[in-house]
Design goal:
The complex is a heterodimer of chains A (283) and B (123). By secondary structure, chain A is α/β, with parallel strands linked by helices. Helices cover 47% and strands 13% of the residues of chain A. Chain A has a seven-stranded mixed sheet with strand order 3-2-1-4-6-5-7, sandwiched between helices. Helix content of chain B is 85%, strand content 0%. The chains are: A alpha/beta (283), B mainly alpha (123).
Chain lengths: 283, 123
């Protein structure tokens, strides 16, 4: 029993060490790409931790729902592949009418295809189901339009690896100033935060951020039934319902012409809120 | 009298449609009985106004027609809700089907590629 406890401590120390090394080195900009990848491999992946009998590595899978993203998907996967191995990136082509599926397949990532479009929430739920089946310890959801930075995954994974929380939510307002965000979008996000607080009792200031990390326990207990964009509110609602521990970490959102064009329309915010409320009456 | 005849003809049409849908197995027996019963009550209410008035007085509503109007609104609201629930269930079933197909396809490919999805992981 004592040996087992010692082994557990060993695992925690190793994880913390590699995690801090990765974050520190990246912040100091003194890490080469290969060194960063090696460090991340040791931190989170199957290849790490097998030496010295510490076969404890937390396996991170990244779920990327994609709909008509042929122009952006290859770049997003290439960025992610600097942080996690390509075979730990699950792309769900959600019935795209363009070449998203073919482009993603050429990257080495795991690519699934919904033969008809079912919405981002449905695609994320599909990715989470496969990631759990493949043995994921941490599941990160990541938008396919290029608005997120793969390196933010480090900060998202850290609280879960250290066992301090079940869910880590990316927040674009905590540290970085979101450049390029439209004023109406900003207002809707703030109103959405108040709506989430009133309806679900969860206090977050960025309720629609697609970058989040779930522990295996959280991923198994959160049920995503909202197929379309209302899934973001539903996940927060599920966190409250399942009494999961959550925290927010700052992430940078990059607004490009492409991501702004692909993003939610301001006018759809009210219908999303209504759909979410009605679904709560039914389920 | 013209209104009574129109409602009776429409009621007969609705009952015959319900019966035919039941014969085609598009309606279950309880649902068919519900629709036939509903139209019989509606047609009966048109012809026996005294009967509806006594019911409406019992519920504290002045006129029989008002009572049936309130009842119809309540019933329609409930049917809308039932329809919405059914639609949501169908939507969820469709999503589950699409998900199962995509994961099964990928699972087969991963198995072919010698992926190490063990029984433990599947559990």
């Amino acid at each position: 029993m004592a040996a087992k406890t010692l082994l557990e401590e060993c695992k925690k120390i190793r994880h913390t060490f590699y995690l801090n090394l990765a974050i520190f080195s990246r912040q100091e900009n003194d890490m080469t790409e290969s060194a960063e990848k090696s460090c991340m491999n040791r931190l989170a992946l199957h290849s790490g931790g097998e030496e010295n009998g510490c076969n404890e590595a937390a396996t991170i899978y990244v779920v990327v729902p994609a709909y008509n993203e042929e122009s952006a998907i290859a770049g997003v996967i290439a960025d992610l592949a600097r942080v996690v191995p390509a075979q730990h990136i699950i792309v769900i082509d959600d019935g795209s009418s363009d070449a998203t599926y073919l482009v993603a397949q050429q990257t080495g990532a795991i690519v699934l295809r919904h033969f008809i479009n079912r919405g981002q929430g449905a695609a994320i739920a599909t990715g989470i189901e496969l990631a759990l089946e493949l043995g994921a310890d941490i599941i990160v959801t990541f938008d396919a339009d290029g608005q997120h930075r793969a390196t933010d995954i480090l900060e998202l994974a850290k609280p879960i690896i250290l066992g301090s929380t079940d869910v880590v939510l990316g927040n674009r307002f905590l540290k970085y100033k979101p450049e390029g965000i439209r004023k109406d979008r900003y207002l809707i996000l703030k109103l959405g935060a108040i709506f989430t607080w009133l309806v679900s009792g969860i206090r977050v200031s960025d309720c629609q951020n697609g970058l989040r990390a779930l522990s295996r326990k959280a991923a198994r207990s959160i049920q995503i039934k909202q197929d379309r964009m209302a899934h973001a509110s539903e996940i927060l609602d599920e966190i409250a319902r399942e009494k999961l521990k959550y925290t927010e970490v700052p992430v940078k959102v990059i607004y490009t012409e492409h991501s702004l064009r692909k993003g939610q329309k301001t006018s759809s915010a009210f219908s999303l809120a209504l759909r979410f409320l009605v679904s709560r009456l039914i389920h | 009298m013209v209104l009574e005849i129109i409602i009776m003809l429409f009621g007969a049409f609705a009952v015959s449609r319900s019966y035919l849908r039941y014969r085609e197995r598009l309606l279950t027996l309880p649902i068919a009985i519900f629709w036939v019963g509903l139209w019989i009550v509606i047609v009966g209410a048109v012809f026996f106004k005294n009967w509806t008035s006594s019911i409406s007085l019992f519920f504290g509503i002045g006129r029989g027609a008002d009572f049936f109007l309130f009842g119809a609104i309540l019933l329609l609201s409930y049917l809308c809700f039932r329809l919405y629930v059914k639609l949501e269930e169908t939507r969820q079933d469709l999503t589950n089907l699409v998900r199962a197909i995509s994961i099964n396809e990928k699972r087969a490919l991963l198995d072919q590629a010698g992926s190490n999805i063990s029984e433990k992981q599947l559990g």
